[in-house]
Design a protein that fits this description.
Distance between the termini: 37 Å
Radius of gyration: 21 Å
Helix content: 55-70%
């Protein structure tokens, strides 16, 4: 019995209460890059043919490959590090919904750059990663595969956008309505106030 209790206490002591710097950095860098990709992706199709449009496409493709590499790195890192436990008071259905959303987000963060990469490959549009080296093609020219990749990339955008919006709204709900540390622990200490600590302080002051 005592051994079981000691083991539980030891596990709890090794479980972080907030994300560490590497986890935060990967999260926010990937988030900002995805926002940039979405913005450029929505605008570049309307640009007039010319150097600016070519540069926008090359930048979009290069950044997509960068996101793919960072997401793979983050997944490996995540499998090797424990996540902070759900904040106190989080219901079971919320925990399951969060897990499902995270799984879908990871899936779409792989699907989007890979489908874009495949679209370029099947369309015989080679590109250099930020002008440094040619990214190897995933396939030879293939008109049918190109159309399938385009469809996945276009519809996948709406799926990913919906998931990101859901993820963002959930974080804001936790921060402003539930007043817990969900958002605060994904940011460096002190960047935003921890509502749960403020609430605890108010309770102590009123006693």
């Amino acid at each position: 019995m005592s051994t079981s209790i000691a083991s539980t206490e030891s596990d709890a002591s090794r479980t972080p209460l907030r994300w560490n710097r590497v986890g935060m950095l990967l999260h926010w860098v990937i988030a900002l890059l995805i926002i940039g990709l979405a913005t450029v992706g929505l605008l570049m199709g309307d640009l007039a043919n010319g150097p600016l449009k070519m540069t926008a496409y090359q930048l979009h493709k290069s950044t997509g490959i960068t996101v793919l590499a960072l997401v793979a790195l983050r997944l490996v890192w995540r499998l090797a590090h424990r996540a902070p436990p759900p904040v106190v008071g989080t219901s079971t259905w919320q925990q399951r919904g969060t897990t499902a959303t995270h799984v879908l987000l990871y899936a779409m963060m792989f699907v989007m750059p890979i489908s874009g990469w495949l679209f370029s490959s099947a369309g015989n549009h080679p590109f250099k990663w930020y002008g440094l080296f040619t990214v190897p093609a995933l396939s030879g020219p293939n008109a049918d595969l190109k159309q399938r990749a385009i469809a996945v990339h276009e519809y996948g955008f709406y799926v990913l956008a919906a998931l990101v919006l859901l993820h963002t709204l959930a974080a804001l709900k936790h921060h402003f309505f539930d007043k817990d540390a969900t958002l605060a622990r994904m940011l460096p200490a002190g960047w935003v106030p921890d509502p749960s600590q403020s609430a605890a302080h108010i309770i102590r002051e009123t006693r």
